[in-house]
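User: Second chain of the day. Same drill as before.
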Amino acid sequence: MKQIVPSFCSSSFLLISRLLAIFLCISPTQSRFSVKIGNDVLSQICAQTEDRNSCLKALQSDPRTASTNLYGLAQISINLANATATETKTKIKSQLGQTTDPNLYDKYLHCLDSYVNAVSKINYANERWSIKDFLALEAAASDCLIDINTCKDVTTPASPFLPQQNDKSHLLCSAMLTIAKRLAAGNN
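Assistant: Same format as last time:
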């Protein structure tokens, strides 16, 4: 009987030490990814953009937003920014083929180059997101804003769609940047 007790104690000690090791191996970064964000956090994020209500509407348009964490919200913002910037790039290409005004053609060409760069930055942001390199994600989002601002600086009222598309793209890259900053800082 004495041999059963030490064997039982050894097994219990081994089990407890393994569980303790598992809990100690969970980093603070992993634990913040399991916390679902609330509407208050979403409001804080969107309050840092130029149009809080449009930001909330855009992020909440994705059904995953209601049940995601900050890391997942970053992916949603990247997806939304990519879709909008790609849509804008496609519309600019279409306008290039239709305009006969050389001045407007040059502006569209300039904007097309900016949006090619912006989409490239968003794709890079997605790569950085997937490996949890939040500082690089933040930098890519910031660069995306610079590219979009470059196009915003040359648009005119003669372009009926571009100012609105620029604003939408800018808003989504701004949301992506705000989320990236929170991730990089370790905030939820």
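Residues 70-98 form the longest helix (29 residues).

User: Great, on to the next one.
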